[in-house]
Design a protein that fits this description.
Length: about 150
């Protein structure tokens, strides 16, 4: 049986975010298919939320399965990603996602020798960058400079 989990606490993220965010692991240290080298599963984001910039050592591939969402990476800014497209995140690369009216269901794949790690929010504790907050799906591309996230200790 799959268990839905959350990485962040109420001290880090807003209640609205935590009500609309979760992931479940199919493959990995705690998944029904054990692996110490890769983790894979599903991420769900409800409508009208932003998953602020975060990063992790693991390399990551996302494959959205349902729902269009905006993805942010420093090199490309915000861009719309549709189901069937893939998004790659290099090790420690900050990235963010934002939904509008459609919820997002995406398959994720992590590759790392240390699967006990968790994603960390970028832009906290002196870290460098958060995604700009002005993204829209209709004008997804953005080169505006990153600004600090203002939610409570997210
Ligand atoms: Fe990630």
């Amino acid at each position: 049986m799959l268990a839905w989990r959350q990485t962040y606490s109420a001290q880090q993220m807003s209640r609205q975010f935590l009500e609309r965010y979760g992931w479940t692991e199919l493959v990995g240290l705690g998944g029904p298919v054990p692996s110490r080298e890769c983790a894979a599963g599903f991420l769900i984001l409800g409508p009208d939320i932003e998953y602020p910039a975060h990063h992790h050592e693991a390399r990551e591939l996302y494959l959205p399965l349902a729902g269009r969402a905006a993805w942010w990476q420093a090199q490309s800014g915000w861009r719309e990603v549709s189901p069937g497209e893939t998004v790659l995140h290099a090790s420690q690369e900050p990235h963010a996602m934002r939904t509008r009216s459609e919820p997002l269901l995406a398959f994720y794949l992590w590759r790392s020798a240390n699967l006990e790690q968790h994603a960390e929010l970028t832009g906290r504790r002196g870290a460098s960058v958060s995604a700009p907050r002005s993204a829209s799906l209709s004008s997804a591309a953005s080169s505006s400079p990153p600004s600090p996230d203002t939610s409570e200790e997210h």
